[in-house]
Amino acid sequence: MRPLLITIVGTRPNFIKVTQFNRVFEEAGFRHELIHTGQHYDLNMAGVFFRQFDLEPDHRLELKHTSPTGQMADILLGLETLFLEHKPAMVLVPGDVNSTLAAALTANKCGIPIGHIESGLRSEDKGMPEEHNRILTDHISELLFVTEKSGLTNLERENIPMDRVHLVGNTMIDTLVGFEERIDASSVLNDHALTPSTYILMTMHRPATVDDRDAMVKLTALIREMTSVGRIIFPIHPRTRKQLQTFGLLDEWEGMDALTLTEPMGYFAFQKLIKHAMVVVTDSGGIQEETTFRQVPCLTLRPNTERPSTLDPGSNTLVPFDIPIISDYLQQIRKGQYKKGAVPPLWDGRASERIASVLRNRLVG
Ligand code: UDP
């Protein structure tokens, strides 16, 4: 019987990190099952990705609670039943969300080894829930798959035995490379009457930004200023929309002519928007990496990043919430004077294959 690998996904960025796993694990001699925890559950944040990637989860959990702790408790109990029944040789957990940590804890309690995909990233910002999820998951993982060199240094500094650690590249980039034709075929530019290299693509969803009224007021002023440089297209995360409503700012946003607000987009449309943007302004983790791969300018409105290779050699810059500073960058970008950046090592579309090869040596050998 071929050994069973189980991968746990729960949120949009998770789905995007595992699209090649079925294929590469089958080829490497494994059976592979996907479990969706249900942390992101609606069509825009989950369903569209399963459909576009042709990725039907083998099992789905029903989360009864809505608080982060309640959801994690639901995930622990739901996964325990499945793990005990299916007895995987290893559980794979991508990323840094609550589903990642809950799945890792369950596997640990069930005595099943854990492989952490996108291990070793550190923002050094303990105010970010994701930072705790990353550290805790790494420290109970058997195999740590690292996307960029900083991950090696971070894990070594935390005394993780380095024979568990493997620099394999970035499985998010595998998805981009694997679906390039579908991305190019998206009609999103025509749909929104956008001219390549002239528009600004924007996303914001981190609690540090969108849960704070003052920050959202500042963001509103910033957006107004940015519309003088180019049209903005802004797919709104559900959390951000909710907070705009709470703070009474949604009408003002909807009233700005040069700002196009949309629902969260499917993968192909969103990737096409990144590929042809003049600049992307964001607080997302994954988008810093995708813009680096595309060598598209990215301004990240955060004081830190857990992905330093997007700053150097990448095309990303961390910017403060300061309108004159951001305007300066936008002018540089518009005039073509901004850095082009380079793609970090091993971001070549083959990270999933490298993971499969490590797993094969470890579990099939
Ligand atoms: N994304 C998408 N549609 C959108 C916004 C983002 O497909 O409307 C993709 C994006 O390209 C990236 C992933 O979702 O692959 C990032 O998710 P998010 O920013 O929510 O999470 P983070 O990376 O910050 O954890």
What does this structure look like?
With about 375 residues, the protein is α/β, with parallel strands linked by helices. It has two domains: about 180 residues, Glycogen Phosphorylase B (Rossmann fold), CATH 3.40.50; about 150 residues, Glycogen Phosphorylase B (Rossmann fold), CATH 3.40.50.
Helix segment tally? 18
CATH topology assignment of the largest domain: Rossmann fold
What general form does the structure show?
A: globular
- What hetero molecules are bound to the protein chains? uridine-5'-diphosphate
| Fraction in beta strands | 5-15%
Topology, please?
Blueprint (H helix, E strand, L loop, with lengths): L3 E6 L2 H4 L5 H7 L3 E6 L6 H11 L5 E2 L7 H19 L3 E5 L3 H12 L4 E6 L9 H11 L3 E4 L2 H9 L7 E3 L3 H8 L1 H5 L3 H4 L8 E3 L4 H4 L2 H14 L5 E4 L2 H9 L3 H5 L4 E4 L4 H9 L3 E4 L3 H9 L3 E3 L15 E3 L4 H12 L16 H14 L1
Parallel strand pairs: 1-2, 1-4, 2-3, 4-5, 5-6, 6-7, 8-9, 8-11, 9-10, 11-12, 12-13
The structure holds uridine-5'-diphosphate (UDP).
